[in-house]
């Protein structure tokens, strides 16, 4: 569902919801309205249900990540090869500052299936490995993505994140797995 209304109110709602997630607090229409300084009906003008709010929040977080990914890719994604897209993804996942609210798709156990589906739609273009690649190349690309996913999850969840000293070496290893266009 698309949010209605003034962008400033919607942005404030997203900022409040992210702050709650970053603090480990539950998301509800009430908690977000209170944090934003809106009434619950005022919040519901933009997001009539919690499901609509969470869908909007997933899209908001994913669009932010996509902007960061595009900054790591020198060409439009439609023109990029699988290796170029995955190199950008690996860099984003391992280098980027990540926070707990990046894991928004897990923010409500009752909506996790719907939210992970939405998240997957946003990220599929970045991590898709063509079926017609040789198996060894496909395996390397999948391994690099899974390594990057682990680094991203560790940083976002603050569960055994990479030390700053180790990050460049892990990034180099992951990029080596991705390879270059002529490898």
Description of the molecule:
The chain is mostly helical. 65% of the residues lie in helices and 0% in strands. The protein has 8 helices and no strands. α4 crosses α5 and α5 runs parallel beside α7.
Please compute the radius of gyration using only Cα atoms.
Answer: 18 Å
Compute the number of strand runs: 0
Q: What is the mean pLDDT?
A: 93
CATH class descriptor: Mainly Alpha
In CATH, the homologous superfamily goes by the name: Tetracycline Repressor, domain 2
CATH topology: Tetracycline Repressor, domain 2
Report the end-to-end length measured between terminal Cα atoms: 43 Å
Estimate the strand proportion.
under 5%
Proportion in helices: 55-70%
* Mass-distribution shape: elongated
Look at the helices and sheets and give the structural class: mainly alpha
Would you identify the CATH architecture?
A: Orthogonal Bundle
Distinctive features:
HTH_TetR; transcription regulation; 65% helix; elongated; 8 helices; 183 residues; transcription cis-regulatory region binding; mainly alpha; Homeodomain-like_sf; DNA-binding
Short description:
With 183 residues, the chain is an all-alpha fold. 65% of the residues lie in helices and 0% in strands. It starts with 6 loop residues before the first helix and ends in a 5-residue tail after the last helix.
């Amino acid at each position: 569902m698309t949010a209605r209304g003034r962008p400033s109110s919607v942005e404030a709602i997203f900022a409040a919801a992210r702050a709650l997630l970053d603090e480990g607090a539950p998301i509800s229409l009430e908690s977000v309205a209170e944090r934003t300084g809106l009434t619950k009906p005022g919040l519901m003008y933009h997001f009539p249900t919690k499901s609509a709010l969470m869908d909007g929040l997933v899209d908001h977080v994913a669009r932010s990540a996509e902007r960061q990914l595009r900054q790591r890719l020198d060409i439009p994604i439609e023109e990029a090869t699988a290796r170029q897209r995955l190199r950008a993804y690996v860099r984003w996942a391992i280098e980027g500052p990540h926070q707990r609210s990046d894991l928004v798709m897990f923010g409500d156990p009752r909506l996790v299936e719907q939210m992970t589906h939405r998240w997957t739609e946003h990220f599929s273009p970045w991590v898709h490995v063509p079926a017609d690649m040789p198996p060894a190349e496909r395996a390397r690309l999948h391994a690099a993505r899974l390594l990057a996913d682990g680094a991203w999850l560790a940083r976002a969840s603050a569960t055994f994140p990479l030390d700053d000293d180790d990050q460049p070496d892990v990034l180099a290893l992951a990029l080596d797995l991705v390879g270059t266009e002529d490898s």
